[in-house]
Amino acid sequence: MLTLMCLAIPARVISVVGDKAQVDFGEKVLREVNVTLVDAKVGEYVLVHAGYAIQAISQKEAQETLSLWNEVLDAGKE
Amino acid sequence: MADSQIYRDPEMARRVSDKIKALTPKTGIVKICHVCGTHEWTISHFGIRSLLPKNIEVIAGPGCPVCILPASEVDAAMQMAKKGLVITCFGDVLRVPGSHGSLLDAKAGGADVRVVYSTSDAVTMAQVEPQKEFVFFAVGFETTAPSTAIEVQRKAAENLSFLISHRIVPPAMELLAKMDDLELNGFIAPGHVSTIIGLAPYSVFPEKYHLPTVVAGFEPLDLLFAVYMILKQISEGKPKLENEYSRGVQWEGNVKAQRLISETFDVVDGKWRGLGVIPKSTLALKQPYAGYDAIRKHNIQIQDGIDSQPGCRCHLVVVGKIKPDACPLFLRKCTPQNPVGACMVSMEGTCRVWAKTANVPNTK
Ligand code: SF4
């Protein structure tokens, strides 16, 4: 896997042991990543950059993007 | 996880484009600068520029850590390789031109240079071969610096030291904000750098330079929304800081990562390829970790390097003053296979992105 230096990729946390977690990038790409920087919870998503999770992301926040976008569009209506 | 298609919904894209059109001033140019190689990739790959009105220009700033890596630091890594140390680095770093050749050339000449996916891979390699001395070439912005900090603090392997080349983004943005001839009207701030640093470090841009600043994600719609949010701020005459990418960035950033960075590094003046020395823009290991500084440990002299090969226009590309196709070497002497300038090396480098995508400009 090539490291893109600006990009972090979401992956689902499968298991956590100490500061390491097994994560799933989708399509059965499993990897061990370091989770020192985040509170990794099994079943939730983390943003992974070059083998280190840099942020925990929840389904809720993904949904919020859509409502933010709709709000932004509606706010311009008047 | 929500399906990524929702971030590419054509109907939503059309609605935002309409809004953008409605807010675009009839005269004059609105110049918006992003500072992230992955933003350039999304913009080029999805033809975002072709969806914008003619007088909205989105330019690429110094957002690719490989492009701004000074030759002097590549030269230092090559000196270390020559001394017989094992150099570990990310794939892109391998091909960045130093003053005379790249680490790839050193490798071809027999040096032990190894590509890793992650800093922790370098640690593992050093642990497996304790009889050898390893160096990790730590390149990257704030997104990458925390991983170096973790491993330095762990003191994971005595035979591993770090060539620290981390740079921080806001001081480079400030350099651009101050350039009179660039005449910027707004910033799209980098998403994953912001995941770490949060929004506060950008407050200077709306407050001091009156530049609308929006942190954005990496999907096509994220970038269209960022453009729209900037135009809206301009039309209201109220520059401010906004977060379009709330699913990846919290306002305060990743506090733990910030703490690790400030415990591990001092912020010092540093050279950026193509930009010169930028005050307080570069990380250096703090005194307690000096033993892990590869330059000190292996007694390397950093010399002024040759950042620009003859004819190369990277120094203009990297601040968005010219587009890659205005460089006389673009796709002639300088290609993704044989890069002459650093902007052609990484998949996030502006020239490399333009070489790989049919960038449809909106201004012609
Ligand atoms: S085409 Fe090559 S030489 Fe020209 S500016 Fe881009 S990277 Fe530099």
* Strand residues, percent of chain B: 15-25%
Highest-level CATH class of the largest domain in chain B = Alpha Beta
Give me the Rg of chain B, rounded.
Answer: 21 Å
Strand proportion of chain A: 35-45%
Largest interface: A-B, 36 and 60 residues
Shape of chain A: elongated
- Total strand count of chain B, please? 11
Following the backbone from N to C, one meets helices and strands of chain B in this order, namely HEHEHEHEHEHEHEHHEHEHEEHHH
What is the total number of structural domains of chain A?
1
- By CATH, the superfamily of the largest domain in chain B comes out as HypD, alpha/beta domain 2
Strand order of the largest sheet of chain B: 2-1-7-8-9
Helical fraction of chain A: 10-25%
CATH fold-level label of the largest domain in chain B: Rossmann fold
CATH architecture of the largest domain in chain B: 3-Layer(aba) Sandwich
CATH top level label of chain A: Mainly Beta
Average predicted local confidence, pLDDT of chain A: 82
N- and C-termini, Cα separation of chain A = 47 Å
Summarize the structure.
The complex is a heterodimer of chains A (78) and B (364). By secondary structure, chain A is an alpha+beta fold.
Layout: helices, strands, pairs:
The complex is a heterodimer of chains A (78) and B (364).
Chain A (H helix, E strand, L loop, with lengths): L8 E9 L2 E5 L5 E5 L10 E5 L2 E6 L1 H17 L3
Antiparallel strand pairs in A: 1-2, 1-4, 2-3, 4-5
Chain B lengths: L9 H14 L6 E5 L2 H9 L10 E5 L10 H12 L3 E4 L13 H6 L4 E3 L3 H10 L5 E7 L4 H10 L5 E7 L2 H10 L7 E4 L1 H7 L6 H6 L3 E3 L4 H17 L4 E3 L11 H10 E8 L3 E10 L8 H4 L16 H4 L32 H7 L8
Parallel strand pairs in B: 1-2, 1-7, 3-4, 3-5, 5-6, 7-8, 8-9
Antiparallel strand pairs in B: 10-11
Bound molecules: iron/sulfur cluster.
The site of iron/sulfur cluster has 14 residues of chain B, from helix 13.
Description:
The complex is a heterodimer of chains A (78) and B (364). With 78 residues, chain A is of the alpha+beta class. In chain A, 22% of the residues lie in helices and 38% in strands. The longest helix of chain A is centred in the C-terminal third of the chain and has 17 residues, at 59-75. The mean pLDDT of chain A is 82. Helix content of chain B is 35%, strand content 16%. In chain B, helix 1 packs parallel to helix 10 (220-236) and helix 6 packs across helix 11 (255-264). Chain B has a five-stranded parallel sheet. Chain B is built from 14 helices and eleven strands. The longest helix of chain B is centred in the middle third of the chain and has 17 residues, at 220-236. At the A-B interface, strand 4, strand 5 and helix 1 of A face helix 1, helix 2, helix 5, helix 6 and helix 8 of B. The complex binds iron/sulfur cluster. Residues 312-314, 317, 324, 327, 329-330, 334, 340-341, 343-344, 351 of chain B line the site of iron/sulfur cluster.
